[in-house]
Design brief:
By secondary structure, the protein is α/β, with parallel strands linked by helices. It is built from 9 helices and 10 strands.
């Protein structure tokens, strides 16, 4: 028995499965990496472990320190999990614009929560800027470590192992990697690794159709939690990206529901957007192609939203 292991050792090494029933005929194979197998049900656990471990090792975060961060939810739960396991305090800034499950999840790990008020429905650039400013103010207190995920390059390193897992699980047989952009850290981390193995692998970024700033559109309110901050994130590296696809909120939600009903994969809205974009690329690249995308988080994080609520789902 390995008695040194703790919950943090269960982060990573998630399954890669082929999608069969939501992929159109006569197009390439689409594979989904089940990142909701991480302990908080989100790929963000990888990033949180990397950031907190590195800050603790180099002294930016002292043993008695408090971690501070702004987050739409999944990052908050992931950071709170790592802080709980390592014995740090954490103060999270978020908003009621995000699902109640995500807010409750953070608090369950012992996070202190500050909510920023918003007038708009959905996620807007202004809301993100207000959350960032609130976190910055809290981080002015002594003995705090502000993660600042939009600017912290340690977040990218957290996804290098994810890239290596994809390369290993596909035996290097991968033509494209398709993934949505929030901070841009996960896309950049995975893309860096995959391109280092094979520069010909296509990297496809996904953003909300209502706020398609990466492809030259205007920012707008949308309802795909965790992506599309309304401006180009500082960690965005266009040199690593071959194409940007825009997916509308309604289409992403529809695909998420299809994944649950037809594949038995219960995931969030951005995962639906990822798969929809991946099927488009698989159609474009043809039957011999192999496309990988990520199931970013679990559908359990969205039960209070209209994504899976019984009264909003069609009855058959």
């Amino acid at each position: 028995m390995d008695t040194d292991r703790n919950i943090l050792h269960s982060i990573g090494n998630t399954s890669l499965v082929q999608l069969h029933h939501v992929v159109p005929q006569d197009c390439g194979k689409v594979f989904a990496k089940l990142e909701w197998q991480n302990p908080t049900g989100s790929m963000k656990d990888r990033m949180a472990l990397s950031v907190i471990s590195r800050a603790g090792e180099d002294g930016r975060l002292s043993p008695e320190g408090t971690v501070v961060e702004y987050t739409g939810g999944s990052t908050g739960a992931s950071l709170a999990l790592v802080c709980a396991a390592k014995g740090y305090r954490i103060h999270v800034v978020s908003s009621k614009a995000f699902s109640q499950e995500k807010l409750d999840h953070m608090v369950s790990y012992g996070a202190q929560l500050t909510l920023v008020l918003t007038d708009a429905s959905g996620f807007t650039k202004q809301l993100f800027l207000d959350m960032i400013e609130a976190a910055r103010q809290i981080a002015l207190k002594p003995n705090t470590f502000w993660v600042d995920q939009l600017n912290n390059t340690d977040t990218i390193a957290g996804y290098f192992p994810l890239g290596e897992e994809i390369w290993t699980q596909t035996n290097g047989e991968i033509d494209a990697f398709v993934h949505s952009v929030g901070t841009g850290a996960s896309l950049r981390g995975v893309a860096t690794v995959l391109k280092s193995h094979n520069p010909k692998i296509k990297i496809i970024a996904v953003e909300p159709g209502e706020s398609s700033v990466l492809s030259g559109g205007k920012p707008g309110a949308h309802d795909i939690e965790g992506i599309g901050i309304g401006y180009t994130p500082p960690l965005w590296d266009p040199n690593l990206v071959d194409e940007v696809l825009a997916v509308k909120t309604a289409d992403a939600k529809n695909m998420a529901r299809q994944l649950s009903r037809k594949e038995g994969i219960f995931a969030g809205t951005s995962s639906g957007g990822n798969v929809l974009a991946a099927t488009r690329i698989a159609s474009k690249l043809g039957p011999a192609s192999k496309i990988v995308t990520l199931m970013v988080d679990s559908g359990l994080k969205y039960l209070s939203t209209d994504l899976y609520r019984t009264d909003s789902a069609p009855h058959h």
